[in-house]
Amino acid sequence: MQFLMGGKANEHAPVFGKYQDKAEMFMCSCMGKSYHNVQRTPGGLIYRQRWNNLQFVTSAAFLLTVYSDHLTSARKDLQCPTGSVHPSELLAFAKSQVDYILGDNPRATSYMVGYGNHFPQQVHHRGSSIVSVKVNPSFVSCRGGYATWFSRKASDPNLLAGAIVGGPDAYDNFADERDNYEQTEPATYNNAPLLGVLARLIGGHANHDQLLPVEIPLHKRTPVQPKPTPKARVSPFSSPLEIHQKATTSWVSNGRTYYRYSAVVTNKSGKTIKNFNLSVSKLYGPLWGLTKTAGGSYGFPTWVSSLPAGKSIEFVYIHSASFADVSVSSYTLA
């Protein structure tokens, strides 16, 4: 790409151009600016498959980071089928994927072992699941390691610090169980691309940065107030949209109880809904799965262009209060 953008491809420009087209098609699909966009979870994580999905997330984040720098150096924007993307947006999205992995997600779980307050405790890893020889020097056979240690429900006796596990499913759910290899198995190819992204992010704020500056927006959490444990709520509306909310999990951090809420918006009409605006009040924490408008309401996420009859979309939010008030401000039928 450097050769092509720098005008050094010469007679090979047509071949390099094909590679550039493929690369930019992928970048646009990640940014939700293509006709066929990559799938994301309600919490905003790139999703490809259940088995070790984070390998695709870290690799995509690395590619987005590199391409952001290429575009910045060439002083160009990414031209996508449905709009242009500034290089800083590519880097900011890559950072959002890293933030998700490290705990800024609907479960408030870090998928890097040993990082943060909540991380996987039962990693699908033989060395991590067996007691250290320094603690118990007794010989552990291959079969013994499986029969005695693998099936234990307790936390790993050896902390596999820094390992990135497979990660959550398409709905941000994660089962921290040692035999759940699809989600709890670590891999070196999960970590390797992430190191490049982290190096770029820290390098971008250092004096030795040799690249053009790309500003990275930082996420700030909103203070929350604790409330009693909530019960499920169905919000009736006079519109064709039905909203059902429920609390899916809770945890205590620093003496405060936090709740993760799932809100499912269903099109009950017989027609496709082209767009909608939801009003969300009494929200004291982050929300994922909707796009906030300039007016403060919430619309479709970037990867959804319409809601067919009978179909639903889900968004999630976290705070230490009872249900947020969600209502339909407007909608447009096809």
Automatic annotation (TrEMBL):
Carbohydrate binding domain: residues covered: 241-322
Q: Which PROSITE patterns match?
A: GH9_2, GH9_3
Q: Which reaction does it catalyse?
A: Endohydrolysis of (1->4)-beta-D-glucosidic linkages in cellulose, lichenin and cereal beta-D-glucans
The enzyme's main class, written as a single word, is: hydrolase
> Where are the active-site residues found?
H124, D176, E185
Q: Which GO terms describe its biological process?
A: cellulose catabolic process
Entry's Gene Ontology cellular component terms: extracellular region
Q: Which residue windows are coiled coil?
A: none
According to the UniProt entry, its GO molecular function terms are:
carbohydrate binding; cellulase activity
Q: Name one Pfam family in it.
A: CBM49
| InterPro entries in the record | 6-hairpin_glycosidase_sf (IPR008928), 6hp_glycosidase-like_sf (IPR012341), CBM_49 (IPR019028), Glyco_hydro_9 (IPR001701), Glyco_hydro_9_Asp/Glu_AS (IPR033126), Glyco_hydro_9_His_AS (IPR018221)
- Keyword Glycoprotein attributed: yes
Compartments, record wording: Secreted
Name the UniProt key words of this record, in alphabetical order: Carbohydrate metabolism, Cellulose degradation, Glycoprotein, Glycosidase, Hydrolase, Polysaccharide degradation, Secreted, Signal
Query: EC number(s) for this protein?
Result: 3.2.1.4
Q: Know the name of this protein?
A: Endoglucanase
- Which organism does this sequence originate in? Artemisia annua
Source organism lineage? Eukaryota, Viridiplantae, Streptophyta, Embryophyta, Tracheophyta
